[in-house]
From TrEMBL:
PROSITE patterns per record: FEMABX (PS51191)
A single BP term in Gene Ontology: regulation of cell shape
Family label: Belongs to the FemABX family.
Key words of the record: Acyltransferase, Cell shape, Cell wall biogenesis/degradation, Peptidoglycan synthesis, Transferase
Cited PANTHER family: LIPID II:GLYCINE GLYCYLTRANSFERASE
GO molecular function, one term: aminoacyltransferase activity
Keyword Acyltransferase annotated: yes
Domain BioF2-like acetyltransferase: 168-307
Protein known as: Acetyltransferase (GNAT) domain-containing protein
Lineage: superkingdom: Bacteria
Keyword ATP-binding applies: no
Species for this entry: Brevibacterium sandarakinum
Length: 372
């Protein structure tokens, strides 16, 4: 049982087409594995790529960004550009389907991929994992448990769906209905501007990082990449749209992606109403799972809020990390640590990759980056 590794570059149209066709043929159709969605979620200057493994009727699809590492190159003479790998924002890692023996295929895939990585001067790898064990390939590096994420099982009756949320959620949904709140659902992007009005005002209120302030072009790109697979679920009150969640849809899972609420509308409890309507909408369409995500920190208010919709649905969100070139990693880390120490900042021993931390760095292991 032999397999073939291909590494695709999304900037090459032929490679992008191969990737898109493989994604369309996958049983999960994870929105975070689509090349055009990945491109929208670029961490900056990086090359979007995917490692693909094919054997008989089985496949592995691993999207990632390859980034150049600034600073001294190998040997210090500029001959070797050093790089590292990071998976796109969201739930990712190497997805697999149709493999006769996932563990055996994983061993061969990683052996070939690691050879490719070393040939391309890759120093380290950081990935964010799928929440579904059956989708994720066994990983040979260090897996770290981050926050608890919440997944609501939708393969239940309508009655069990209702009784399966916490009582405070049911109270808030009833309150919203008494106040005359109703649902409006848009899967075509006709209400993007209404979404942006609510979403951006929410980002302002929360003083959210610039990375989260997506523009209209970004959302238009989502619709182009995933036609019919983006759903805006609004709460409407007295003719005005007051709260919204944006869902990204896979083959059998709906993922909460972004959302917001008009501050003036809190009293009519639109937040819980929207998520309840999301659950109903997905349930009616035979989706199996509703992924709500998690909080920013363990047991914070956001995590407790999401737990209310899936009290028994806590799932550990994992990240993976590996070092391919230990000597280079240690050299880069020592140089960065000296700079951090000189600046008076505190060195974070848990940050990965360590050589990217600093006052202007984006924390790969920070939940402002990896959470949903």
């Amino acid at each position: 049982m032999s397999g073939v590794l291909s590494v695709l570059n999304a900037d090459v149209e032929a490679d992008r087409s191969v990737w898109s066709r493989l994604w369309a043929a996958s049983p999960m159709q994870s929105p975070f594995a689509h090349p055009d969605v990945c491109r929208l979620l670029s961490p900056g200057r990086a090359t979007l790529m995917a490692a693909v493994w094919t054997e008989d009727s089985g496949h592995i699809l691993y999207p990632f960004f390859m980034r150049s590492i600034e600073g001294p190159t190998r040997g210090g003479d500029g001959r070797f550009e050093l790089r590292d790998i990071i998976s796109p924002y969201g739930y990712g890692g190497p997805l697999h389907w149709g493999l006769a023996d996932a563990a055996e295929s994983a061993a061969r895939f990683w052996a070939d991929f690691d050879s490719w990585a070393r040939d391309n001067n890759v120093v380290s790898e950081f990935l964010r994992c799928s929440l579904f064990d059956e989708e994720l390939l066994p990983y040979p590096g260090r897996l770290r448990q981050r926050q608890t994420n919440f997944v609501r099982d939708l393969t239940v009756s309508a009655e069990e769906l209702w009784t399966g949320v916490l009582s405070k959620v049911r109270r808030n949904v009833r309150r919203a209905k008494r106040e005359g709140v109703s649902a409006v659902i848009d899967t075509e992007g006709e209400l993007i501007d209404e979404f942006l009005r609510i979403y951006l005002s929410t980002m302002d209120r929360r003083s959210s990082a610039q990375w989260y302030r997506f523009d209209r072009e970004f959302f238009a790109g989502l619709h182009a990449a995933l036609p019919g697979k983006c759903a805006y679920v609004f709460a409407q009150h007295e003719g005005r749209l007051i709260s919204v969640d944006l869902l990204l849809l896979g083959a059998d899972a709906g993922y909460y992606f972004l959302g917001g609420t008009d501050e003036a509308a809190f009293s009519v409890r639109p937040n819980d109403f929207v998520k309840w309507e999301v659950m109903n909408w997905l349930h009616e369409r035979k989706y199996r799972n509703y992924v709500l995500g998690g909080g920013v920190r363990s047991d914070d208010g956001l995590e407790r809020y999401k737990r209310g919709f899936a009290p028994d649905g806590g799932v550990a969100f994992l990240t993976g990390e590996r070092v391919f070139a230990t000597e280079e990693y240690e050299r880069l880390t020592a140089a960065r640590r000296a700079g951090v120490d000189e600046s008076g900042l505190t060195w974070d021993e848990e940050f990965f990759p360590a050589y990217r931390q600093g006052p202007d760095s984006v924390a790969e292991s920070d939940f402002e980056t990896v959470r949903m």
